[in-house]
Structure formats: structure tokens, C-alpha cells
Amino acid sequence: MKIICFGDSLTRGISIVKGRLRIIKQNYPNILANLVESFPSIEVINKGVFNDNSDLLMNRIDKDVIAEKPDAVLINVGGNDCNFKWDEVAALPDGEHEPIVPIERYVENLTAIISEFQDKHITPFLLTLPPLDPARYYRSICTQFGPSIAHWVSSVGGIEHWHGMYNRRLKQLAVEMNVTLIDVRTYLKEAGNLNQLISDDGIHLTSEGYMEMSRAIFQDLNIHYRVSETF
């Protein structure tokens, strides 16, 4: 059985190490591969790309998923979709700014991605957006782009507003398309101290966070495939 992990930097395994963004070995696909070692003939492949959003996932479906002929694909994307072009916000803090991928297009993209996999008899799983730490995230982007973004952020409700909105729509889509949803967001919130699970930039995970994310995915995959008797 082959499982593709398809997503952005949270799939790739990005974290803050000694103040810098790094790819760490303790990413969720690697940890998941270790967790499934007790099951025969399961291969887990990491197809996460830093800074990807659903537009960019659309462009690499054939190469990174279809060509691999997997049995299942874990889809984790949205954090970059609901983010903003902070350089433009900093330049025009009184202007109007849209998320990088507006929510309507985000849903359209995911619908097309899921339909493509279903048509190819690949079982899709949707992963919710992991929680973030708004305070640390804003400190991070203010360091990069300057304090002028604070005025705009305060007027639109903050990134957690958009993050939550995209996540709720993701969950609704899973119901509409009858796709298994793995709620890593809730699992991580209940797993322990988020300060230890979320890295210093407020949005990526620590090695401990990726471990908890992997456990949530393994738990749901185990339940799913025991029921279908194919694991």
C-alpha cells in the first residue's frame, strides 16, 4: 500500500531551529512511516512543498500523485491560502487586501483535487489546518515587514479569523464530498501545551508537534483501514 502526503511546508517538515526555518527529519510523513512499520508493505511518500497553496497543488497533481499510483493521499493545505502578501499590507496598511487564495477558489481547488483522486480510485483524506499561535506569528511577520501591518490586522480580525474560517469550510467540504476528515487541529489543541508544539514563528510545528500530528493521522488511518480490512 502506498500513501502520498500531499501539501505545503507542514507536510514538508519546516520548523524554526536556532532562529531559522529548517527542514527537520522529524516531519509528519517520516514519523507516520515509522508508526506504520507494524503493518506489512506500506510506503509513505512526502510530497510537501514549502510555501505551497491550493493553486500550486493543482499544478502538480499528475507528477506528484497520479504518476505515483498511490492507494491513498493525505491532503493538508490552506495555511498559505488564507495568508496575505504582507509586503503589500505593509505598504498600504489602510488598503483592502485579499487572502492569497480567496476562500471560494480554495474550495473550488480542493473540490477539483478530491474529484481527480476519486476518479483515479485513490482514497483522499482531508487534514484540518493545525492550530497557530497568533501572537508569535505577528511578532515574526512584524520583524520582517515592520509594525505598519498591525493597524490593518486589527481592522480585519487577525489571521486566526481567516485561519478558522478556511478550516470550517474545509470541514464542510469533507462532509459534502463524503471524504474522511482527520481533525489534527483539535487533536493538537488537546495534546498538551501548544507553546511546545508550535514553533517560534507561530505557524509551523516543532518536532513534538509533528509527532502529535502523526499520531492523530495514524489513529484515524488505523480505524479507517481496519473497518475496510485493507490495512
Draw up the topology in text:
Blueprint: E1 2-7, H1 9-12, E2 14-17, E3 20-23, H2 28-35, E4 43-48, H3 54-59, H4 61-64, E5 72-76, H5 86-91, H6 103-119, E6 123-127, H7 134-145, H8 149-156, H9 159-176, E7 180-182, H10 184-191, H11 194-197, H12 207-228
Parallel strand pairs: 1-4, 1-5, 5-6, 6-7
Antiparallel strand pairs: 2-3
Helix pairs in contact: 2-12, 6-9, 10-12
What does this structure look like?
The chain has 12 helices and 7 strands. It has 231 residues and is α/β, with parallel strands linked by helices. The strands form 2 sheets. A 5-stranded parallel sheet has the order 4-1-5-6-7, with helices on both faces. Helix 2 (28-35) crosses helix 12 (207-228) and helix 10 crosses helix 12 (207-228).
Features:
231 residues, five-stranded parallel beta sheet, alpha/beta, 51% helix
**Segments where pLDDT lies below 50 for 5+ residues?**
227-231
Distance between the termini: 8 Å
Helix content: 40-55%
Largest sheet geometry: 5 strands, parallel
* Contiguous helical run count: 12
Give the structural class: alpha/beta
Radius of gyration using CA atoms only: 18 Å
Shape: globular
Strand content: 5-15%
The pLDDT mean sits at 92
Say how many strands there are: 7
Largest sheet: spatial strand order: 4-1-5-6-7
The helix/strand series, from N terminus to C terminus, equals: EHEEHEHHEHHEHHHEHHH
